[in-house]
Amino acid sequence: MNHTHYAHLPLPASLNPCIDFHGHLCPGLVYGYLVAMESLRRLKEIRSDDEELVAISENDACSVDALQVLLGTTAGKGNLTIQNIGKNVYTVYSRKAGKGFRFSRKNTYVYSGETPELFDDLEKKVTLGTATVAEQKQQKILKTLDLLTKPVDEVFAITDAAIPEPAFAELAPSVACAACGELTMKTKMVTRDDSLLCQPCASVE
Ligand SMILES: [Zn+2]
Ligand SMILES: [Zn+2]
After folding, report:
1. Do residue 193 and residue 107 come from a single domain?
2. How many domains does the chain contain in total?
3. How far is the CA of 113 from the centre of ligand 1 (A)?
4. Which numbered ligand comes closest to the C-alpha of 199?
5. CB under 8 Å, gap of 24 or more: what pairs does 16-21 form?
6. Residue 96 Cα, ligand 1 centroid: separation in angstroms?
7. pLDDT tens-digit profile of 18-63?
8. What is the span of the domain harbouring residue 181?
9. Rounded distance from Cα 172 to ligand 2 centre (Å)
10. Could you tell me if 188 and 102 lie in one domain?
């Protein structure tokens, strides 16, 4: 699904490319959107053309896609690190600014939109597992729209990132594994009896 599917909703235009990339609109995507937009505001940068912005996500969920689209921190460029320990925590660092911010989601989500009774009813059904697919969708959309109206520091605890400047993406030559022959980044290989092995081959022995 692309963003035109949600044209009836009052969404900010900057969210549209995130929806197009991710394939649907969900609260998770909006969490990433909020992190990205607030990072850009604080770091006064636009999208990362090379590697001046770095993002570290402590989960591998929907939110990461908004970071990739809006910050240009992508899996392929090496300026996105997914340390998947299942935490709702994101760090965005700017090499140019020499600083970064850590966003930790607060656990006190309270719906403050226009239809609290409807939301509570849907939330109860979702929690009990009795919500229909349509009701699950409606609950997600209500939460999504509500999140977009909240001040970002109500959704996330934001602190200065206490991390050293992240290293640039590793550039290393690829060499053929001595066992399987497949090209492998040299720095990821294991030396065994003076020959280089890829990790799967090294673990077989
Ligand atoms: Zn999603
Ligand atoms: Zn191998």
Report:
1. no
2. 2
3. 21
4. 2
5. 17/69, 17/70, 18/65, 18/66, 18/69, 18/70, 21/65, 21/68, 21/69
6. 31
7. 999 999 999 999 999 999 999 999 998 777 666 789 999 999 999 9
8. 174-204
9. 17
10. no
